[in-house]
Write a structure and sequence with these properties.
Elements: H1 3-26, E1 42-47, H2 58-73, E2 76-81, H3 88-100, E3 105-109, H4 114-123, E4 128-132, E5 149-154, H5 156-170, E6 175-180, H6 185-205, E7 210-216, H7 223-235, E8 240-244, H8 248-261, E9 267-272, E10 288-294, H9 296-308, E11 317-320, E12 327-328, H10 338-352, H11 362-368
Parallel strand pairs: 1-2, 1-3, 3-4, 4-5, 5-11, 6-7, 6-8, 8-9, 9-10
Antiparallel strand pairs: 10-12
Helix pairs in contact: 2-9, 3-4, 5-6, 5-10, 7-8
């Protein structure tokens, strides 16, 4: 066979080999097992904050955004790690384990990751990070810009505001309560917005509601503590409690559900995600009046997509609110009447149109309530 003939055969073999390799790369990912997944999948990791991946709140919402991206786009391989503790070293160990395993896009939910991400961004220049509810800093709170980190915040006070309006319009006793987890800005903003929403409803719609207890449990995982605080507030005559407390909120729901099973008309306002299912009792009804939601799942989804499409806004601090449809209450609220939903929509329009500026600080709230 001539040299020219040999080269032609080799070229043909190379083309066929390439075609088969291409077919293999585009095939569906195999089910769980020992087989390797297609190399074309981008590895996306997540490190959980306080609580577990199924906390019905912040961790779960973030993870669901990642899973939705996997389902919709079929271009990522996902994994989450729960750190052994809640110190920077614990977070860094988990981040390092992910990055060293090829997970070069890591999503972290919560301000506790700020110093860890600041360190990781320098250590792993070839990785990218989505930091939700926090911004990289050295422990002094001063923002440190990294081109491989995007920081995403939300106007929680605007979501809390709508929850306050809905609660003031729904209460039968005129008494409401608020239970926060740790006393940190995102949680406080939910509460300040809630108080402002109640005040708005009183002035605009003639309701006569008041927040009789405004408490912080101090953690995001003390279920028993949440239950005890809720019992105390309900015992004072409140019929609605808004919790912004992560796993502590599980205890609030437990207390409300126990009372509802006995025929008491008590309600919970959920947080972060639509917690209607979390409030269901044996009759099939739910004690969840509504939820103050923030698009943590949307943020995770969108910034994974941005990274994979070379549009990652590294170095930026982004804040999302009502104008972005990133916070609010769920689209469906079975326990709110059509009239109440209509009035909540009016409140939302007043905020979006700039007629109402929802207070984002305690000082602004004091002015708002005058």
């Amino acid at each position: 066979m001539s040299k020219k003939r040999i080269l032609s055969v080799l070229a043909a073999v190379a083309v066929v080999t390439t075609l088969f390799a291409g077919c293999k790369a585009s095939a569906p990912a195999p089910s769980q097992g020992g087989d390797k997944k297609p190399a074309s999948l981008t590895k996306v990791g997540m490190v959980t904050d306080s609580g577990t991946i199924d906390d019905k709140s912040f961790n779960q919402g973030t993870w669901e955004g990642i899973l939705k991206y996997k389902t919709d786009k079929k271009t990522i391989e996902e994994k989450y790690l729960q750190p052994s503790g809640e110190q920077k070293t614990d977070y860094m160990n988990a981040i390092s384990d992910l990055v060293d395993s090829g997970y070069k896009l890591v999503v972290t939910p919560g301000f506790k990751f700020e110093t860890a991400i600041n360190e990781a961004a320098d250590k792993y220049k070839d990785a990218s990070f989505v930091l939700i509810d926090g911004q990289p800093n050295n422990g002094d709170g001063k923002f440190v810009k990294h081109d491989n980190v995007v920081s995403v915040f939300f106007n929680e006070h605007e979501a809390g505001f709508l929850a306050g309006v809905a609660s003031a319009l729904s209460t039968k006793t005129g008494k409401l309560g608020f239970i926060g987890g740790m006393k940190i800005p995102p949680v406080e903003k939910f509460g300040w917005g809630f108080k402002a929403g109640v005040s708005y409803a009183n002035k605009t719609f003639g309701t006569k509601a008041e927040v009789i207890d405004f408490l912080f449990e101090g953690t995001f995982n003390n279920v028993a503590g949440g239950k005890n605080l809720a019992a105390g507030i309900y015992n004072k005559g409140a019929d609605i409690i808004f919790h912004a407390a992560g796993g502590v909120g599980v205890g609030v729901f437990n207390e409300a559900k126990e009372r509802a099973e006995k025929g008491q008309n008590v309600w919970v306002v959920g947080v972060d995600v639509d917690q209607y299912e979390s409030g269901k009792i044996s009759s099939g009804k739910s004690v969840t009046l509504t939820s103050a939601v923030k698009g943590i799942d949307v943020a995770a989804f969108n910034y994974i997509d941005a990274k994979l499409n070379n549009k990652f806004p590294g170095g930026q601090v982004i804040t999302l609110g009502l104008k972005d449809n990133a916070v609010g209450i769920p689209a469906k609220n079975p326990n709110l009447s059509d009239d109440i939903v209509k009035k909540v929509d009016q409140a939302k329009k007043d905020v979006v149109d700039g007629k109402i500026k929802v207070p984002a600080t305690e000082a602004d709230l004091a002015t708002f309530l005058k």
